[in-house]
Amino acid sequence: MSGIGLRRFREPPAASPAAWPAASPAGERSADERCEMCHRLIGPPHGHLVDVQIRGLMCVCRPCYLLFIQEGTARGRFRAVPDRYLHDPSFTLTDDQWERLQIPVGMAFFFRNSALDRFAAFYPSPVGATESLLPADTWSEILAANPAVPDLEPDVEALLLRRQDGRVDCHLVPIDACYDLVGRVRMHWRGFAGGAEAWQEIEDFFARLRERSRRP
């Protein structure tokens, strides 16, 4: 993955918000990184699998990645993270809906947890990805108001929302892209407001995301 080498993450208990360990920042990847399936050496451009059972994100070589593209392989325990990037410029979300989502910052990502059969919401913070308990009725209302949003692949794709200047940008991204953003925030954030370096990292991330994304 470009910039950030991802490692294990665990989902916090559903009863209360908690932080996930963030991605490893750029430069911390070992030169002899190995596939977490077969242990062969892998380079920086490599695929990722989600271990659905333990909520783990794994770095894998191309052959191991291809094994799990077919849904149901290994009884569905491992899912290959796809490479789909979409942008929906018509996405709408009101100030009231955002308030009801209980997201205290201007960025968050949402994905379907197949084990719990529900959507989960997380936002980047200086301590990692932090959960915000997601009101199911509000989220259903938002999705109903935006029928152009494609169905997400459970566990491996997310809707990444950024609220800025009274508007909301909506991207459908692979789940590892969300942890790329989380790792950058954790690595560069300073003090209460973040600092110029952190905000430049965030702007650069979303600029690259816009370049890569297509409309649904």
Rg over CA atoms: 17 Å
Biggest sheet, in brief?
7 strands, antiparallel
Count the E strands. Answer: 10
**Count of alpha/pi helices:** 5
Which whole number gives the mean pLDDT? Answer: 83
SSE inventory with pairings:
Elements (H helix, E strand, L loop, with lengths): L18 E2 L26 E5 L4 E5 L1 H6 L10 E3 L5 E2 L7 H7 L5 E7 L4 E8 L2 E5 L3 H9 L12 E8 L2 E8 H14 L7 H17 L4
Antiparallel strand pairs: 1-8, 2-3, 2-4, 5-10, 6-7, 6-9, 7-8, 9-10
How would you characterize the overall build of this protein?
The protein is an alpha+beta fold. Helix content is 25%, strand content 25%. It is built from five helices and ten strands; from the N terminus they run βββαββαβββαββαα. The strands form two sheets. Strands 1-8-7-6-9-10-5 form a seven-stranded antiparallel β-sheet, covered by helices on one side. Strands 3-2-4 form a three-stranded antiparallel β-sheet. Strand 6 (107-113) and strand 7 (118-125) form a beta hairpin. Helix 4 (175-188) runs antiparallel to helix 5. The chain is globular. The chain starts with 18 loop residues before the first strand and ends with a helix. The model is unreliable at 1-29 (pLDDT under 50).
